[in-house]
Design brief:
Chain lengths: 794, 155
């Protein structure tokens, strides 16, 4: 480590754990401080003399800015720094794929909540009051809030490049193919929020030499660092990031929030600056899942063999690019679902609007299209008079088939097998509705009936997605393994920049090291930018890519250990060398203890691991774009009260292929948690927009599944090894979120017979109430909603 | 400003506080107890749940002045002489957490629940924790953790 890169703040002490080997359930190493309340989240960061940062955001979704006057704010006692776009030292825009988003807005604002100025003060309240003293002269413009409108030629352009951010066109087989049986439909997915429980926070500490240390909760330290360095006009080595405790992510921390702002304030004020969003600000402070409107047409022969799929997808990318390009590509490639489709025409569009920027969220483009293609499959089954699972089995893709984007379906691709498994799992017990404990009715005790209108339904869905970064992206991870002796015991230090966001990556890295080197004490060092990039904790990729890097670094260390053994003991052992129980073995015979072998110096190896290359799609949307695919199927059993529109999800059953179970308990947690987010999208979760403004930026009005909403998950896990991946494993985080949503909606349709072409499904749709939802706006002179306002439309 | 005297995790503190200061902010900002988390500001998520005289409360719905003279317990005060509270052990072993942000609140709510109902059914566990949100786990391992802590068979 170079002296000049020493951080201004000490690393927390890392206690080694005995993580167990891969395949074993072991409690998480970070679970110890987490259950003791001692885990340091980014919101807990503090140092003496630190200032508090705050952000002035636009109240308008679309406006010109004629002037920004900060004089009064700067004069306030306790205010140390007030910064606008003029103070951005380097590049004034940022973005992971397309740098189009202002660090601080100038001339225009394009979404409600866009940052305009930042303040640092000695107290958070002083900082907030200073924001109120900044005068911004806006000229309010009409917002463009409908992507279809944004797509029209005569619509004003929100960016110089136009309103179309990305389009992907896939032409597969005969795009003019016709069929005997045709079903079509229009589907819509609302804007879901990641709603991680720990809001955005971080602390920037100036190093006194022009550089800065940032302690931050994020998903990808190095892409943050590179964007910060560009905007600060500093060399990357002068911007050092350390991951601090992350309270969940789910895609919402892949883009920057206060990273550049806090560093600018800290460098300007010459003091550490902490920034922390509250829940309301968090809704404006990160990207969301893209809303999408989808038009589909499926053609099949009379036996139910798919002949063609045509789809037109229109995504609302919001004001800035974020990772929308990749979402648009993903959605295009997965638009047909995991089926053998001989002919396809897919047109996927990503539009700029004045809605909040949308980007990564668990499932990343596969979620939206899965809702549509699975609804279409049910419609087709209905038209053919076929069982919906039978129709899916008949068309299930198999290894050797061609994806609509031209790539060959690799081994393993167990679509039929996972469908059969969920179909054959036992059904949950059916309790008589009338007379049961009211708490087990849809809506629980808020159900005002005795269950007379309750119906049960069952639905199925299957989905798939790529793992990791695709389409030619140089996707890699770096890992360093140091094996040494401390207090007479061998110990492994693992160092990567991979962000632990709750998924269990730290434990997995320790388990891999423990397994590869046969040493029980493993300490995983904090993730930071002193080592090379690990890539993002997203796209279900860290087990594969950083797991692969850790395994490879262990193999390099093992090679060095064996070299040393051969140097000291010759090379006639009568058996393969291996490492177990802190020793080097030949066959079953112990050659030397590591404590002895490494007495005079440990071994450290740093490696970079890459999976096999991927390629961009050509002009017809064809190419080997992805390197691994993960599949899951879901069955939902629901009960719906048709009079009240209330739902109880009785059970979710799932089968998923994970290649190799690395930590059974951790895996189950990923599947259960992913299903809960799919349930949220099916029934509850939507950021409601009106004229470009968020209507429900709180957990009072943005509804997350509670422990009463979420049923037990019945699961079967397949271990069909991927021949290319470390241990044969597959990414597991996202598939549970993809097909759980359409399975639940299919079950709702089964129960009610209603169409339900939009998620989240609202109670009024289930109860058959036509037209606009009931408006609860207070009447002039009234203190709130009155009975007359509520009941009249019902 | 008003003077308050509060016992937190067995230690008594006296401070002058603004009458509008919330207990969660008193614990976090004045006493530096990071183990009480703030997740929503609207009393929906329960990450700030603590025990007040043995009863679970969301500390964002209590003013610091209301805690004057009361006995507060946070997750950081649970371990005695290095021995974890059984609910802490159960959440750790049953994998009742991922990111862990909801965990202190879940643990405190569970302790309060088990005091009222030492052997809760699954339904009672779910009702008892209904005011605490978790975004990571899907709740199933949390239910398992509560069962384990109660000494019930864990399926």
């Amino acid at each position: 480590m170079k002296a000049e890169s020493a951080p201004t703040r000490e690393r927390p002490k890392i206690l080694p754990s005995n993580p167990g080997k891969i395949g074993e359930s072991r409690p998480r190493a970070d679970g110890v401080p987490k259950v003791r309340g001692e885990f340091e989240y980014s919101s807990d960061l503090r140092v003496d003399g630190m200032l508090w940062g705050a952000t002035l955001r636009s109240p308008h979704p679309h406006a010109n800015i004629w002037s920004i006057d900060t004089a009064e704010a700067e004069d306030m006692p306790g205010v140390y720094s007030v910064l606008t776009h003029e103070d951005v030292p380097g590049r004034k825009v940022y973005g992971m794929e397309v740098p189009d988003q202002p660090v601080l807005a100038w001339e225009h604002v394009r979404y409600e909540g866009e940052p305009i100025a930042v303040v640092a003060a000695d107290h958070p309240e002083t900082a907030r009051r200073a924001l109120e003293k900044i005068a911004v002269d806006y000229e309010i413009l009409d917002p463009i809030t409908d992507p279809a409108e944004a797509l029209r030629e005569d619509t004003p352009k929100l960016h110089l490049s136009g309103n179309v951010l990305k389009e992907v066109h896939i032409k597969h087989g005969d795009v003019e193919a016709t069929a005997d049986v045709v079903v079509s439909g229009e589907y819509e997915v609302g804007m879901q929020d990641q709603a991680f429980l720990g809001p955005e926070s971080g602390m920037a500490v100036p190093d006194g030499r022009g550089g800065v240390d940032l302690f931050i909760s994020t998903q990808w330290l190095h892409i943050d660092r590179d964007q910060i360095a560009e905007s600060l006009d500093l060399p990357p080595e002068d911007v050092r990031l350390t991951l601090s405790g992350v309270g969940g992510a789910f895609g919402g921390r892949e883009d920057l929030s206060m990273q550049i702002h806090s560093c600018m304030l800290a460098l300007d004020a010459g003091r550490p600056v902490k920034m922390m969003y509250n829940r309301e600000e968090s809704f404006y402070g990160h990207v969301h899942r893209h809303p999408c409107k989808m038009e589909y047409e499926h053609g099949a022969d009379r036996e139910g063999n798919l002949v063609y799929v045509k789809a037109r997808l229109v995504f609302d990318g919001g004001a800035y690019a974020s990772s929308s390009n990749a979402v648009c590509l993903n959605a295009g490639t997965f638009a047909c679902g995991p089926y053998d489709v001989p002919n396809a025409r897919i047109d996927s569009y990503m539009l700029y609007t004045n809605n909040p920027p949308c980007g990564a969220m668990r499932g990343f483009g596969a979620v939206q299209v899965c809702f549509a293609h699975e609804t279409q499959m049910d419609k087709l089954a209905n038209k053919l008079g076929m069982n919906p699972v039978e129709l899916r089995l008949k068309n299930a893709m198999k290894p050797g088939d061609k994806f609509p984007f031209g790539q060959t379906v690799p081994e393993p691709a167990p679509v039929a097998e996972i469908l059969e498994r969920v179909e054959n799992m036992p059904m949950p017990e059916e309790e008589e509705i009338i007379g049961r404990d009211l708490r087990r009715l849809p809506g629980g005790v808020s159900n005002v009936t005795r269950g007379e209108g309750v119906k049960r339904g069952v639905g199925y869905a299957v989905g798939y997605k790529n793992i990791g970064f695709s389409a030619g992206f140089d996707d890699y991870s770096t890992a360093s393994i140091a094996l040494s002796v401390e207090d007479g015991e061998p110990i492994i230090y693992v160092h990567t920049a991979a962000a632990e966001v709750g998924q269990g990556g730290v434990t997995l890295q320790a388990q891999i090291s423990r397994t590869e080197l046969g040493v029980e004490n493993v300490a995983v060092l904090p993730a930071d930018t002193r080592i090379g990039s690990a890539g993002s904790t997203s796209a279900s990729r860290q087990s594969y890519v950083t797991g692969g890097a850790v395994k490879m670094a262990c193999e390099a260390v093992r090679g060095k250990v064996f070299e040393r053994v051969r140097e000291e003991f010759g090379d006639e052992f009568g058996g393969e060398l291996s490492m177990e129980d802190g020793s080097v073995l030949a066959g079953n015979r112990r050659i030397v203890a590591l404590a002895e072998l490494l007495e005079n110096g440990g071994i450290e190896e740093t490696v970079v691991y890459r999976h096999k290359p991927t390629y961009p799609l050509d002009e017809n949307g064809q190419g080997d774009a992805h390197f691994q695919f993960a599949f899951a199927a879901h069955r939902a059993v629901v009960e719906v009260d048709e009079e009240l529109g209330l739902v109880r999800v009785v059970e979710i059953a799932t089968a998923q292929d994970v290649g190799k179970i690395m930590n059974p308990q951790s895996l189950e947690g990923q599947i259960q948690g992913g299903v809960a987010q799919g349930l949220g999208l099916a029934l509850l979760e939507e950021i409601q927009m009106k004229d470009g403004k968020v209507q429900n930026a709180s957990f009072t009005d943005y509804l997350l599944p509670t422990i009463l909403d979420m049923p037990p998950v019945r699961m079967e896990v397949l271990e069909l090894a991927d021949p290319d991946s470390p241990y044969g494993l597959k990414g597991v985080g996202e598939p549970p979120t993809i097909s759980s949503t359409p399975a639940i909606v299919a079950a709702l349709r089964d129960a009610t017979g209603r169409e339900l072409n939009r998620v989240p499904v609202k109670p009024e749709q289930l109860a058959g109430i036509e037209g606009e939802p009931i408006r609860r706006a207070p009447q002039p002179g009234s203190r709130g909603p009155v009975a007359d306002d509520l009941g009249s439309e019902a | 400003m008003r003077r308050i005297k509060v016992t937190v995790d067995g230690k008594t503190h006296e401070h002058e506080v603004e009458p509008r200061l919330l207990l969660i902010h008193y614990l976090r900002e004045v006493l530096g107890i990071g183990g009480a988390h703030s997740g929503c500001d609207t009393s929906n998520c329960g990450a700030c749940t603590i025990l007040m005289n043995g009863e679970s409360v969301k500390s964002c719905t209590v003013l610091a002045v209301q805690a004057d003279g009361e006995d507060i317990m946070t997750v950081q005060g649970l371990a005695k002489n290095g021995e974890w509270h059984p609910v802490q052990t159960a959440f750790h072993e049953a994998h009742g957490l991922q990111c862990g942000y909801c965990t202190p609140g879940m643990i405190m709510a569970t302790i309060s629940l088990l005091k009222e109902k030492p052997n809760p059914s699954e339904e009672e566990i779910r009702e008892g924790l209904e005011g605490n949100l978790c975004r990571c786990t899907g709740y199933e391992n949390i239910v398992k953790a509560v069962k384990q802590a109660a000494g019930s068979p864990v399926s």
